[in-house]
Every structure is written in C-alpha cells, then in structure tokens.
Write a structure and sequence with these properties.
The protein has about 210 residues and is of the alpha+beta class. It folds into 2 domains: about 80 residues, Glutaredoxin, CATH 3.40.30; about 120 residues, Glutathione S-transferase Yfyf (Class Pi), Chain A, domain 2, CATH 1.20.1050.10. The chain is about 55% helix and about 10% strand. A 4-stranded mixed sheet has the order 2-1-3-4, covered by helices on one side. Helix 4 packs parallel to helix 7. The longest helix is centred in the middle third of the chain and has 35 residues. It is globular. It starts with a strand and ends with a helix. The chain binds glutathione. Glutathione binds next to helix 1 and helix 3.
Length: about 210
C-alpha cells in the first residue's frame, strides 16, 4: 500500500516530511487535511494525532505523528541509512547526528517557528502580530546562530560531516525567514552558516517541495 501522509500543502511540518519522501524517492499520497474546515480537530483526526496537528503518516496501517519522528522512521525503513542518518551500529556517528538534531529542536525551531507564527501565520489568521515579541525572538535566534557558526567551523554539517536529517529539519522554517526579510542564514556575519544554508536549501528535494 502506498504511504499516506495526512497533512496540508501550506504546513511547514508536512513539508519537512515531504522533503524526506523526495530524498528517498518514495511514492506517497498527500491526504489534505483542511484547516479551514478544522479537520485537524475532528475526533477521527485526534484519535490518531491527539494534539490536533498535522502531519501524520499511515504506512499500511502503522500510524505515526511528529514530523521528525516520521522522518527518522522513513529513513530507517526505506533506505536512508548512510544517506540521511548514520548506521545505528555506529554509535559515535549516531550520537553526533542526534546532537545536531537536538540543536535544531532546541536552538533553532522555537525561535524560527515563533517568528513565522508572529510575522507570517498571524496575519493570515487575522490575528495581531506582537512586534516586540518578534524582535525578541529575532535577537535570540541571531545569538543562537553564533553557536551554529562555531559548530559549522568544526564540521561540515549539523549532524557530522555528511548531510543528515538534522540539516533537512531546518528547511521549512529557515526558508520562511527570508520572506520576513531576516537574512541571518545568508549574511556574511556567519560565513559557515551561509555556506551550509546555501548548500542544503538548494537540494533538489527542497527545491521541489518548496515550489508547490
Ligand atoms: N511537533 C509537531 C508540530 C506539528 C504542527 O505544529 N503542525 C502545525 C502545522 S505545521 C499544525 O497542525 N497547526 C495547527 C494547530 O496547531 O492547530 C510536528 O513536528 O509534527
């Protein structure tokens, strides 16, 4: 049975999983969950995703939510070992990959997704942006990227010296920074970050996903 991804074409977390599906050349069906109809809050949806959020994956009856967990599952099951994640038998490489994945979740996502909520999603939802809070998030993110700069001076990618999921996880919210005219990922202030971002954001998987 073809993989089914329950998500939304405008959702960043759905895009994260779609990128990995493209990386692995996996055919899948996107089952569109209509936010306007609040389908993500319907009992049949929350029976699978108790937080009422997209995406979730249905792999022949096995259902999984949380975009990053789905990406790891897909990579482990469908040919991503040595391509998107290290061989789990290699403990040190796996640990460095997990370190990078954790950096994204704790040092990037809270600020980049917070900024996207303030500056991109709130206006669409008819909510009022809080410019002071957005400015605070921006300052936090800029400081965190100094840490990225130091890390990327020692290793090529966030999860080691090869591209991994830890890099790809940044793509949806990283790309939304540009439309907010926040150039931290492309600025000469952080040359290692700039080089890293230019490389990962031009991968054909992301070019394809972000064009839709
Ligand atoms: N940690 C979750 C976050 C999921 C999430 O925030 N999904 C958003 C779309 S990107 C959503 O469904 N928002 C609607 C809501 O929270 O009501 C994941 O990575 O899957």
């Amino acid at each position: 049975m073809v993989l089914k991804l329950y998500g939304n074409p405008h959702s960043t977390c759905t895009a994260r999983v779609r990128t990995v599906l493209e990386e692995l050349s996996l055919p899948f069906e996107l089952v569109v969950v209509d936010f306007a109809k609040r389908e993500h809050k319907a009992p049949e949806f929350t029976a699978v995703q108790p937080f009422g959020q997209v995406p979730y994956l249905d792999d022949d009856g096995f259902r999984l939510f949380e975009s990053r967990a789905i990406c790891r599952y897909l990579a482990l099951k469908y040919g991503g070992i040595g391509k998107l994640i290290p061989d789990p038998a290699d403990l040190e490489k796996t640990a460095v990959f997990e370190q990078g994945a954790s950096v994204e979740l704790s040092n990037f996502d809270p600020f980049a997704s917070g900024l996207a909520f303030e500056n991109v999603f709130k206006p669409v939802l008819g909510l009022e942006t809080d410019p002071a809070f957005a400015e605070k998030l921006k300052g936090f993110l800029e400081n965190k990227l100094a840490g990225y700069e130091a890390l990327l001076a020692k290793q090529k990618y966030l999860g080691g010296n090869e591209v991994t999921l830890a890099d790809l996880f940044h793509l949806p919210y990283g790309t939304l920074l540009k439309i907010q005219k926040i150039d931290f990922l492309e600025s000469d202030k952080y040359p290692n970050v700039k080089k890293w971002w230019a490389e990962i954001s031009s991968r054909s998987s992301w070019v394809k996903v972000s064009a839709r």
